[in-house]
Design goal:
Strand content: 15-25%
CATH class of the largest domain: Alpha Beta
CATH superfamily of the largest domain: Translation initiation factor eif-2b, domain 2
Largest sheet: 7 strands, mixed
Oligomer: single chain
Shape: globular
Strand order of the largest sheet: 6-5-4-7-10-15-16
Distance between the termini: 22 Å
Number of strands: 16
Helix content: 40-55%
């Protein structure tokens, strides 16, 4: 399939990172230029750019921005590398749950550590790697889409949670990549998108980009999925992921676990769609995945207006973990992984490694 997306959330252009400000969609559609490493850190933390693969791309570009700044400090090569490694470690802390960010920053750290180039040559290598990560993500997502389309029934209604589309990746999407590929084969496929409280990424972002692509989408509230499953109106669920443990337990936007429980009860297949870079084989289970605690105002306010008593207590975890036994399959660029996930994940990485060596 040729890549043809109307949305490119982040690109490297003339020495700066140009990204779509996702905090103001659908009210505005505006690109901003990120020119410093600290600005990139803040853009990731404040969710100007969001989605696990997209913040991986952003992290890689952020290391380049830091390198460009350090070039002006008249450092020796050794000092330059030391300070840049510290900056890369700092960039990786901008958000704690999505492992793609740490993965991409490590890619850049490996170049810093192992490069034999001078400072200018090293910056070029880091820039090339950042661009490569972006292009590689698009290619991976297209493969994920094609693999996932194989399990989408004809005329299916697919429920998705949060946004795992073009806006969350290099421009094609993981869960919505599956939708796009399925719709390309069968234009009777449609989507139910839940609103995804508290930041409404489903309402603001998923419906926005599907409508832009002309793919039929119906918006529902987070509490409605069981009702529609009980009526036989949802044929499958497909969501993205922020981190997948070695046993297949998957962290995704808060509320995903609830959807998975309902899907299991109603015999609706529940799929995860994610690149291998989202799988963290260093952790055995979802119990080890750090869960980001976000601002209480995300819950207490909508569009800047308070919706509850100012004396109410709030807990706002950004993610939850879906146990592997609720997952019908993990759709990746090398195929659909099935239980037992310890075995299929290990085999997937072996296949990927062989592909790299060819």
């Amino acid at each position: 399939m040729a890549f043809d997306s109307k949305i490119r959330p982040i690109q490297w252009v003339d020495g700066v990172s140009r990204m779509l400000d996702q905090t103001i969609i659908p009210y505005e559609y505006k690109y901003v230029d990120i020119t410093t490493g600290q600005d990139m850190f803040d853009a990731i933390k404040n969710m100007i750019v969001r989605g696990a693969p997209a913040i991986g791309i952003a992290g890689a570009q952020g290391v380049v921005l830091y390198a460009q700044e350090l070039r002006n400090k008249n450092l020796s090569l050794k000092e330059f590398k030391q300070q840049l490694l510290e900056k890369a470690d700092y960039m990786a802390t901008s958000r704690p749950t999505a492992v793609n960010l740490m993965w991409a920053c490590k890619q850049q750290k490996d170049i810093i550590t192992n490069s034999g180039s001078d400072i200018d040559g090293l910056i070029k290598e880091l820039t090339d790697k950042a661009v490569e990560i972006e292009k590689d993500d698009i290619e991976r997502c297209i493969k994920i889409g094609e693999n996932g389309a194989d399990v989408v029934p004809k005329g299916a209604t697919i429920l998705t949670h949060c946004n795992a589309g073009a806006l969350a990746t290099g421009g094609y999407g993981t869960a919505l990549g599956v939708v796009r590929s399925a719709y390309d084969r069968d234009n009777t496929v449609q989507v139910f998108a839940d609103e995804t409280r508290p930041r409404q990424q489903g309402a603001r972002l998923t419906t926005f980009e599907l409508a832009m692509d002309g793919i039929p989408v119906t918006l529902i509230t987070d509490g409605m999925c069981s009702y529609f499953m009980s009526k036989g109106m949802i044929d499958m669920v497909c969501v993205g992921a922020d981190r997948i443990a070695a046993n297949g337990d998957t962290a995704n936007k808060i509320g995903t676990y609830t959807v998975a429980i309902s899907a299991k009860y109603h015999n609706v297949p529940f799929y995860i769609a994610a690149p291998l870079s989202t799988i963290d084989t260093s952790i055995k289970s979802g119990k080890e995945i750090p869960i980001e605690e976000r601002s209480h105002e995300e819950v207490t306010h909508i569009n800047g207006k308070i919706i509850c008593s100012d004396k109410v207590k709030v807990i706002n975890p950004g993610f939850d973990v879906t146990p592997n036994e609720l997952i019908a399959g993990i759709i990746t660029e090398v195929g659909i992984l099935r239980a037992p996930y310890e075995k299929s994940i290990k085999e997937a990485f072996e296949i990927h490694q062989k592909d790299l060596l060819q």
